[in-house]
Amino acid sequence: MILIPIMMLVLLAAVVGEYIIPERHSRALGAIASGIVLLLSLYLILAFNSMTAVQTTFSVSYISSFGIDLSFVLSNISVILVLLASIVSFAAVIGGNPGGERRRASNALIMLFELAAIGFFTSGNLFILFIFWDVGVVSAFFMINYLGSGGARSSAKNYLIYSIFASALLLFGIMMIYFYTPVHSFNLSTIEASGASIPIWVQETIFALLLIAFFVKMPVFPLHSWMSDAYSDASTQGSMVLSGILSKFGAYGVFILFLMLPISHTYAKYILIIAIVSALYAAFNAMVQSDLKRMAAYTSMIESSLILVGIAAYNSFGSEGAVYGMLAYGLAASLMFLSVGSIEFTFGSREIAAIKGAVKSASASVYSFLIALFGSTGVPITAGFIADLFIFIGSYQSYGFVGLIPIASLVMMGGYLYYAVDRSFLSTFKHSHPVRIEYWHWDMGYAVLVAAIIVFGILPSILIGLR
Amino acid sequence: MIDALLIAPFIFAGVASLLLGKRSKRYASYLSIASALIGTLMATYAVISENVAAVTRYTWIAFGGYSINISLTDAHLNMLLVLLIYIIAPLIMFYSLGFMDKRDEQSRFYFEINMFAAAMILFAISANLLTMIVAWEWLGITSYLLIGFWYHKKRAARAARMSITIIVFGDIAMLAALIVLWSTYGSTSFTYLLSQAASPIISVIGILIALAIFTKSAQFPFMGWLAEAMEGPTPVSAFLHSSTMVKAGVFLAIVLMPIFYETHIINLFLLFGIITALIGITNAVSAKHIKKILAYSTMEDLGLMMVAVGLNSIAAAIFFFVVQTFYKALLFLDAGAVMRANGEKESIFEMRGSRSNRLLFATMAIGALSIAGIFPFSGFLGKIGIDAQAATNIPLYAILIAIDFVSSAYIFRWLFVPMRQTSDTVLIGRYKRLPKSMVLPGVILAVSVFAADIIYFKLPAYLSIASISVGALHAVIESVAVALGLIISYYVYARSHMLKRHKSISMLLHNQLITEALYYSVGSVFYKVGYAFEYFEIYLYRFVKIIGALVYEAGGQIRRSVNGDVNLYVAGVAIGFIIMLLFVVFYL
Amino acid sequence: MYAYVGYLIAALLGLLVISGITFKFNDRRRLLFGTSVTIFAAILIISLVSILYGVDVYLFGLLHIYQFSLLFVSLFSFAFILVEILGYGSDNFELFNMFVGIAAAGVFLVVMAYSILTIFIAIELVSISTIMMIMTGGKRSVESATKLFILSSISISVFAFAMVLMLPYDGTLSLSLLSMNSSIGGDYIILLSMLMFIAALSIDASLFPFNLWVADVYQGAQDYVTPMLSGINKKVAFVALIYILFIVFASYSHISSVILEVVAVATMFFGNLVAMVQSNVKRMFAYSSISQAGYILIGITTFSAYGLEASVFQIFAHVFMTIGAFAIVMWMESKGIRSVDDYKGMEHRNFWAFSSLTLIMLSMAGIPPLMGFFGKFLLFSSAISSGLLALAFIGIINSFISIYYYGKLISSMLRDTDKGFFYLGRNVRIVVYLCLIAIIAFGVYPHPLLSVISKSVSSLIH
Fold first, then answer.
1. ipTM for the whole predicted complex goes beyond 0.85
2. Taking CA atoms, what residue in C is nearest to A175?
């Protein structure tokens, strides 16, 4: 599939271009580049079912002494995730930087991150996968550190330390896979085929290492300490990208881990337990936050845990649900962060107590927040519903009523989010006054994300049942 | 195909209203009325044509050999509900023409209420649980938006939040039921579900669905949101409490009654129905808010419907279901008109002179007579049906008669207190000048209250269910109880104007506060756990920090030992070499 | 016919030394600079071409010119070009150029050595000229020079003693497998000799605990000498270590491997932990380069062709990274920007300096797709492939620790400041530019370099 490298080249050109063209055209360039990528990824989705195996693979020799090919494979999972990445990035470029501060860096970093995400999700071998993983990690670090606010420095430091720790373990695991696979290969398809012949103890070690790495990224309890700070201190576009795309790196990783190592399924039930604990833990933590962005952060952690529930179900429904969940929750989380970020921009604060009556002066943001809320709690005709349905059908089929426990976190999510809406946007006890005017680019960002959430909620058949 | 078309008018009107936006002026309401009337014609046709019940399936998601369907039915029971919605909807829209006179709210209001109605229609025609859950959750969401429509009122926002919090709970219970059902049987169709024999799985599904029903139909202990929901605009209250939303739960209970019967969950309905009805009447007696009295009355009605379900009597439940629609819509619309005339005051004790507008007062009286259950108003039919079913169970029968008595008393209190004479010419003038659109729907509904009597003769045949034979004895007992209530109320409130409040009793009676305290304590338990988790979170964070600090400290210690002294460096070389040497010596 | 290549290189070296010494007394810096760079470039081109043609000649029984040595000749000639460019701006460039010529001769002799004796003499040549170079830096440098002198003399004497110990066993002292003289029993003496070689070279290669001098000397040396110390002198010691351990003591690899493992672990931890707490950026990079030495050692400990490839690759990577980093850092230092806090707002003040230093640091931390990542990848995977899982894991953990201090500096550079534009010298820019090209190019597409390295390594390990 030549389109994948083309997408990446477009983005790379845009990253470089950001520093060449005058700064005032920065957003236009970003919008054009990510718009092209969005259109291409839409085309990929629509054309995917009619593609042959040859058409979905792109491979050139890269480092022949290790048998590493620069190979990109479009699977039915990755095509959805590429779509997610391109939608979220597009929305982040056009709506995510209200103040227009550090425009160049902002757009260039989003583009770089999108490039990494597309590469990560489509890479056909682990080496390439790791490269894009780290590029994503580092560009997200800059997004937090450079564009963030508040305690962004220390949050970024925490984020970086956790992430690089994850990367280190991931790298180690990848190298172990390479050397313990009988044919010495990084190729995903080869490893999937010969995964069973890796000795059990090696499989267990690799499984543990990679799982920790991916859990850090998702994030899942107890490896999430970086999350709330990083998500809330990052700039709007940074948190959109972090919650919408980067956390899906981890989820996708767990996914391929399950594909690669046959040992995984024996541990699936423990992963389910972690996911349950994580979902409830995040829900309880979310409800006591006084900062809307932190609340959104913990909400996205619940969503990550639900995706993990789907993966742990280890059956077709669970997997499909997890993939759909990555899309649906990714869109919902980034919409939530976009609206919260815009509200913060308008009111100069994101404390729940300080943005009273926001619906009056920033109604578009508030309604977008509500739609993000609906998307997160899985109201029908938002994509979240399909995800919830599939995830829990899967986990019920595998684990019976235990698999339905995390559904409680959805109730709590609804409870505290509506409470927060009541206390902040709707409350009229004392009006907060906007310190800045609304900003028309947001509405376009909202429109893109809302449209995506609703279209994929009404017409799931576009994405479900891709070969 | 017609079943799918039934949603179209509302969707069309809703989307059009949204797109009209600020330019909507009155077009949004004209459009809504027109499309609702078209819907009425369609619904009437659907009922009259008496087509054979057919299920239409649309594949929504096809996945791995399974297909998840949206399926719609035009069974008679469903068409009946559709017709009810479509009778009430144009009246509500028409009423809103006068009621929602603020320009800037029009577009949003008509969008939300049309979407709400569309969700209810989808609910009414759904033939499987999946379709139903889509409608069910959208009912919740749209009702949230409608109850909180005047979000600038603090209490409206709070009421909206309260209702949605409870309703989300029910939604998720429903989702769980759906998942269990689908995973077990691979189908969510009601007909399929009803054909299953009782089993533990069916019981679980039944319990989960019953939970959802309880939240939506405001049964104990989820009844708290109902009265608070009165903060919404009056047309919304009228719509919510008559044909939609709260009726959704009852309707689902009626549809799935055989399942509940087989799994004995039906007893839960009976128990909680009675509790809810009792809570409803005690509050209604003590409440002062003109709409809240009606809301508590709805609570009582819902309780009674659940009792009917609990008695496994489809006919009684459906009779009450239908007749309640008309009189409750009527009363709410009139209450809104009275409030408007009194300058949006809320307490009945601050209101006067409702007699000044004869037409309005006549419809109010008809509504009150019907709700009390006086022959020949259709409310009588509803009540007597349930009473007759409970006749074999003397304590239950006694309770029901007592409920009839009290409900008669409080509804006449509701009628008589605002009726008091006034000499305020401004007030009288306001009554006289009430918009026609706020009065006329009441007239149509008042007629309907009479007309609804025909269901006794037509409905059993239409739905092919056994009718209820009402003994004369039951009619007499019920009539006496109701008359007693009327007389007492007349003497207390209309004649002697005994308006003194007995605080101690009213606290006991007005137990809404206790309900809220209960919710608050449940919520605060969750929050306490949340704070505990937050502490844990902080300690987890610190734990990681400490590890980092230890590593850092190790680095610091080593650095301090490298102090620039060249002797040390040479010593380092020597020591390193000696250690290597020793190692080799011991290694070999 | 290939022998002429050897003569050519030898001749060029001689020319270098002579021109350096002759032109010292000339005032025409440009000519001086031009001559030196031309000679280095010529050596670079010759060696690259020779690698392609698979040259393999012995000269005088002292030099062995073949792919492996030519590989390093090309690397170091490139590095010397960078150092020349850096030094061009300095006040006493003439003197510097002379010492560079002498040092270069030493360096090339080490990598082309076919005799331990050659190594001995050449290393001495390198050390002495480096010390002299530092000595010219004025008062501040004298202390560094003295420290380096003391440690170097210890190194040299230990090296000499090691040679003496093994002379009875192996009369030739040539770089070929130790031919045991069976008339003398027991191999304790041989082992002692090996340990002494390791110790002696560890001082130059800055392996723990022989490396405590590093930060002091790096800090005290002039801004054009430190890159050379870290980029060339240290790497030369590694080459010598490789020759001695891989060729001469190949049959004792099971012992030296264990020793080096421990040393590698200690070096990595020492470098990283101390770098972590440094607030002076120059010292931080000094310790970071120590930890890099630890990584390089990982490949050597495996005693496999793969491991050696990895180490050589990392040596290449680190030469580019460390010269680039020190070029910037030393320039900053000379402008009074010393501590991590002083770097505040560098992004704003000079975006180019910020981005190149960031890229170099990310490469050092092992972030793909930069060269440092691929080097580390090779190193750790070579350890895994030899079954040294624990070593690889410790390496990876260390690489994780290192992100802390690199991140700290990056973070500091991103902070806001109100200070204005900051000028970066042209020669620094050129050097950093060249280094960055190498880092990115070989990071994104390491295949060509890797194939050359593996060819060369297979010429060392037959």
1. yes
2. C381
